[in-house]
Amino acid sequence: MREKMKQAVMTAPKKIEIEQVCIPSPEKGEVLIHIKQIGICGSDVHVYHGLHPYVSYPIVQGHETSGEVVAVGEGVTIFKSGDKVTPEPQVFCGKCYPCKHGLYNICNDLKVIGFQQNGSACDYFVYPADRLVKLPESMSYEQGAMIEPLAVAVRAVKKAGDLTGKDVLVMGAGPIGNLVAQTAIGIGAASVMITDTNGFRLVKASECGIDHVVNPLVEDLGEKLKEVFGKEKKADIIFECTGAQTGLEAVIKNARKGTDIIIVAVYGHAPTVDMALVNEAELRLIGTARYNIDDFQTAIDLVTNEMVKLSPLITDSFDFVDYIKAYKKIENSPESTMKVMIKVN
Ligand SMILES: [Zn+2]
Ligand SMILES: [Zn+2]
Q: Which segments of the chain belong to CATH 3.40.50.720?
């Protein structure tokens, strides 16, 4: 009889059942990972609330993950037992137009583990070796599970082109906004201003070394931009990470004419944009979706070179059997929550 393991199954919105299932074995080209840490992000919370448009139940969550390799399938030579790893969680077709043109992150048939395919919320997880990223020995498993959200920030910043010497505005200081700001500084931006209506998140931003923090409920963002970056100049580039109508409106209103706006946020409710203002000011709205595997490597380098701090973002940690408590904390105390981790093993 094969050995059993724990698996957390979300059977319906707000319902997580811990089940006993057989430990899988790695097939050809696959790796068996002993899962250590899982991060919970905003998209997971949408699934928890039954608000994610592309997820059906039951689903095993877990896409921000770290673990240790415990066995490899036939033909796998790049990983060995004991390696620290994180999966790049996108499963793509490889045949559609975006896939054939290097943009598999926007594959026409994209599946992300934890959403359209079972994720890593279990003790042991099997994953293809060529979709797995090796973590440095020096990195903690908590940090390792945060490489995925950092890769989101890395791609967003790469979309902005060369930021050397630029003054950057980041709207929204949640985990992604914070990581976008840190990445921008890390790769050479002159100065970064970050905004949020949540004071706790601004304190975290300061702890991470972000130059200017603004609470638009307390200070006028437009005035602050002129004061800090220059009356006419304001920000050279803006990253929209709020996902809120008001955030997007503030971006369009305060952008200097002719600038680029990177849309990083995922919008729960479709926002309305005054396209006449976008048109007249020659603003460029640029989308960015997830990452590719190279962005994971850049993310690891940023952490290893101490250009990005991850630890200040982790506000909570729950044991695997208390998975549901993690969501309750996020629900009940958003004012003191940033990144919540699940300790699996
Ligand atoms: Zn995520
Ligand atoms: Zn495809």
A: 153-287
Q: Which ligand is nearest to the CA of 149?
A: 1
Residue 223 has phi, psi (to 5 degrees) of -65, -40
Distance 114 CA to ligand 1 centre (A): 9
> 236-248, pLDDT tens digit by residue?
999 999 999 999 9
**Distance (Å) from CA 296 to ligand 1 centroid:** 13
pLDDT in tens, 86-98: 999 999 999 999 9
In this prediction, residue 335 has a pLDDT band, given cuts at 50, 70 and 90, of confident
The alpha carbon of 292 and the centre of ligand 2 are apart by a number of angstroms equal to 13
| Domain 153-287, CATH | 3.40.50.720
What topology is assigned to 4-146+310-343 in CATH? Quinone Oxidoreductase; Chain A, domain 1 (3.90.180)
Residue 27 has pLDDT above 60, yes or no: yes
Residues of the chain with CATH 3.90.180.10: 4-146+310-343
Q: What is the pLDDT of residue 288?
A: 98
Say whether pTM exceeds 0.85.
Answer: yes
> Torsions phi, psi of 317, nearest 5?
-140, 130
Q: What spacing in Å lies between the alpha carbon of 258 and ligand 1's midpoint?
A: 31
| 111 CA to centre of ligand 2 in angstroms | 10
Tell me the CA–centroid distance for residue 70 and ligand 2, in Å.
30
Rounded to an integer, what distance in angstroms lies between the CA atom of residue 191 and that of residue 168? 6
Contacts of residue 213, Cβ cutoff 8 Å, sequence gap at least 6: 173, 193, 194, 195, 196, 202, 205, 206
Residue with tokens 């595997």: 293
